[in-house]
Amino acid sequence: MNAPARYYNRTRQSSSLPLALLRRGRVLALPLYAALRRSDLAREGFDHSGSYRFADHIYRGTPSGRGAFGRWLDARLLSLPAVRSFRSRYEAARDELAAFLAERAPQPGTLDVLSAPCGIPRELADGLELFRRSGRPVNAQVTFHGLDLDPVALDEARRFAAQRDLRAFAAHRGDVFDPSAYPGHLDFITCTGLAEFLEDEQLSRLYGIFFERLRPGGLLVTSGMRGRPLSDYLLRLAELTVHYRTAADLKRLAGGCPFSAIHTRVDRLGIQAIVVARK
Question: In this predicted model, what pLDDT tens digit does every residue of 148-166 receive, in sequence order?
Fold first, then answer.
């Protein structure tokens, strides 16, 4: 019998957060919890742990919520430094993909680009759009892939790809730790927002799988983050257990694979670390 599927970002243990707060004696947190639920961002975070919809809400950056107060609160949450830093990982993946396509797409051949886990693959659609604006020719046959364990996420990914004219998009259901789930060999892999939910040993193993799936010269774009007091409090309120890492930590873990080059940078807020590794 196969082992049950594991969603690494679903760290919540309590079936009811208000009851959990009461059990812990955190009565004063209940009014804050109730108020935060007026924000679509906070409510998604509370109800569905670290879901792909939560991430995409931040990537879109458009406030929404229940009533005028909910929208106002959502805008305030989206403006928090930790949330703006969260969005920077999507921007990094988008920009790296656009630069990669500018380098490789004018050349004949095939290119395979993967988002894993993909959720809603906004970085792929926006990276492609950014590249198209450059006006550079496309002589390569480019195929975009999304790998995710969640069938609902994959259905949304397919609809999103069709709406955004992300042609030749292939959805693959599977665990990122299962090498057989990957669509052959790849030229570009983006993986953001997963490292926070993995132990060091797991993350090292994942980097090893990515390295094996990349073709020579292929690129991996991934990320990790440092903690901030307010964001850490809100994450703990939602029972989201995350692992914080510096750029040096990520480079050390990626360095366990024989990448030809590993570059790291930290966003302007000093929270999100981006790793770009070339095979």
Answer: 999 999 999 999 999 998 8
